[in-house]
Amino acid sequence: MKANRIILYLLLLCMVLAGCNTTKFVPADKYLLNKAKVEVTDTREVPASSLRTYLRQKQNTEILGFWKLQLDVYNTAPLDTLTKSKKRLARNAKKLGEAPEIYDEALTQTSMEQLRRAMHNLGYYRCQVDTTLKVKNRKMNITYKVTAGEPYYIRQVSFVLPNQELKKVATDEKRTLLKEGDRFDANVLDEERTRIISRMRRNGYYYLDKSMIRYLADSTRQERQVDVEIRLQEYIEQMSDSSFNHLFRRYAIRNVWFHLDYDPAYAPDSAEIHHTEAKNYHYTWVGKRLMRPNALRQNCAIRPGDYFNERRVEMTYEWLNQLGIVKYVDISFDEVAEGELDCHVVMSRSKLNTFSAEVEGTYSSGDWGVSAGVGYINRNIFRGAEELQLGVSGGYEWRQNGGRAIEAKAHASLAFPIRLKLDLNYQYQTRPDEFTRTIANASLGYTLRQRRSRWTHTFLLPDITYVHLPWMSAEFRDRFINNSNPLKYSYESHLIEALSYSGQYSSYSSRHPLRSYGQVRFFVETAGNALYGIAKAANLKKTDDVYMLGNVPFSQYSKMDVNATYTQVINEKHRLAYHAAVGVAIPYGNSSVVPYEKRYFAGGSNHVRGWTARTLGPGGYKGKGSRIDYDNQAGDIHLDLSLEYRWKVWSIIELAAFTDAGNIWTIRDYETQPHGAFKFDTFYKELAWSYGVGLRLDITFLVFRVDFGVKLYDPSLLYESGGHPWRTVPNGLGWKNDMTFHFAIGYPF
């Protein structure tokens, strides 16, 4: 009842705000700008949304594409402000709201001129821009109609550049962006200027800048044809020979100076400054030195004796800013002799030590719990920007079926600037009515990121996990160990010796945020092959048909995942996201089943969202009872397909509509998982299907997400007598069994 009253109050508030007089603060002889939109009438080459940025006047901010909420808040301010309370109300309403946008004819004319210029820059020299004005109830609706006409094309490109190296770079046919026959586009010309100067600045030409290059476009020679001429600015062409030679001189790096512990609020005395030098590298610092000299050199791509290279400057910024101990970096150059520069790298240190503590409540499948943890980070443990992380946590859970569950974790990692990371983890679990288990893990990983490549590669060589179960209740042992349950190996002590590779590719560009982009992730893991080869070569004896390392069997399997997402950017507010993921894990050799912690699970906030986590599959298997059947709802194959429409309605608020399909399956037929095996002639019938809507709050560094999912097709009812896999109202669609909410952080894919 309380929730219903809150919803009712919110609806009433929305009705009150929506019912406000939107022209309340509009002068009697003026109009509220209600709508301002752009239409391109004769071409799809130029999206209307790309031209809206050239409008010099736009309507008030809208939510859901029509509701001017901020304007309505502003209009709640009283006209009568004679009393203090009304003055305060008016002040707060106007502060929180948005003043009405008053139609301005002069800004309309300016907008039309800006649209013409934008179309000219795109090669549409004969475009026409007209406006249609509609007035109703003192509200003005403006439509800018752009008729593009036929575009102009590049007939020829010529270069009038007196410096031979500059001309050589500019006329490089393999790299140039200007092609004869292409549509004339001033934006491409600007990118070409950037390309030319960037190539020069990577080859020692320190003083060059893209503003020094200009282009002339002549459209009078031939019908809808443009001749483009690239040349230097007039003031450069008129320079004296000495000034011109200075501008086009190649510069080499003489010395690299590292100025550590920079503090803009403190100027140390010369006596406080320490200095050391080695091989044209100079180091100055105050107090205790920030980092070892060799660590600084390893993270600096600028080398004494090399020519100035703009790309190496960018790489140095990137490398140094990735170090946790570094807070601020600035790189500058001084000309110290003819053709020589000194490089100055100014750095300030970040906080060396960080302590953290957290307490949170947990809820999982009807079981409530509490957990707490503490952490410590040292960002410069060996004076080489090595980062040490330590953490411990513990949790306590009250279980519906009685008893309690206790869990404790410990974590330690050491990351080196050379992208090498050592991870150590230990986990202790106890369920008094079931078992006690410890899991220890150690891995050594290397991450490779190539600056010019969009790929990131991570190798774990090796990744070793030891699972030990020192105690198990008799009832639990009878259920899993003393029968043919395929999960018996998951509840026996075992060793996993794995090697893995994960790769990620992304075509997203921060320079072009409105360009569609894709992302692909790969993961490949193998385990137990080396141990199996050694055991076989040593002619070791098997126990229960498996090789043992001591008294512990080791797992052997291969696993591969492919995950692909494509985001189609329709415009700045609307986009479609397509997602597909497939994975398979195959046990062989020393294992008849993949370890439980390496298997797949379905449902939840990132998968088929009509199901809660771990309640879907495998195949047409139906879980036992109302609780999650953790033991059996796991598989060796998974498939996910999703389509999501995302609509940014206002500032940080985004709405979504989605549909998901997918499931998990087992590699083999298991007695305890009927209808769970993957079969080519039936798997498509066992694809679960759901749909729903979502709300997201995007606060730049975090996305809070709430999704409401509804089952459309439930394969667990496919083999049930009288079951209806298609979940519709006539088939008994219900709130409890067919709908679910998900709360999560980040996008689902």
What report would you give on this structure?
The strands form five sheets. This protein has a 16-stranded antiparallel beta sheet with strand order 12-13-14-15-16-17-18-19-20-23-24-25-26-27-28-29. Helix content is 17%, strand content 39%. The longest helix has 17 residues, at 2-18. It has 14 helices and 29 strands.
Summarize this, please?
With 749 residues, this protein is α+β, with helices and mostly antiparallel strands. It has 14 helices and 29 strands. The strands form five sheets. A 16-stranded antiparallel sheet has the order 12-13-14-15-16-17-18-19-20-23-24-25-26-27-28-29. Strands 8-9-7-11-10 form a five-stranded mixed sheet. A three-stranded mixed sheet has the order 1-3-2.
**What is the residue-averaged pLDDT?**
88
Q: Radius of gyration, rounded? A: 33 Å
Q: How are the strands of the biggest sheet laid out side by side?
A: 12-13-14-15-16-17-18-19-20-23-24-25-26-27-28-29
Low-confidence stretches: 1-12, 14-18
Could you tell me the strand content as a percent range? 35-45%
Count of helix runs:
14
Counting helices, strands and paired strands, the structural category is alpha+beta
Report, as a whole number of angstroms, the end-to-end distance: 36 Å
Number of strands: 29
User: How would you sum up the global shape?
Assistant: globular
Binned, the helix content reads 10-25%
Largest sheet: 16 strands, antiparallel
Comma- or semicolon-separated keywords:
disordered N terminus, globular, 5-stranded mixed β-sheet, about 750 residues
List the helices and strands and how they pair.
Elements: H1 2-18, E1 32-40, H2 48-51, H3 69-74, H4 84-96, H5 105-121, E2 128-136, E3 139-147, E4 153-160, H6 164-170, H7 186-201, E5 213-218, E6 225-232, H8 234-237, H9 241-247, E7 252-259, E8 273-278, E9 281-286, H10 293-298, H11 310-321, E10 326-337, E11 340-349, E12 353-364, E13 367-378, E14 387-398, E15 404-415, E16 420-431, E17 435-449, E18 455-472, H12 474-480, E19 494-506, E20 517-527, H13 529-537, E21 548-549, E22 552-553, E23 557-569, E24 574-587, E25 637-650, E26 653-665, E27 688-698, E28 703-713, H14 735-738, E29 739-745
Parallel strand pairs: 1-3, 4-6, 7-9, 7-11
Antiparallel strand pairs: 2-3, 5-6, 8-9, 10-11, 12-13, 13-14, 14-15, 15-16, 16-17, 17-18, 18-19, 19-20, 20-23, 21-22, 23-24, 24-25, 25-26, 26-27, 27-28, 28-29
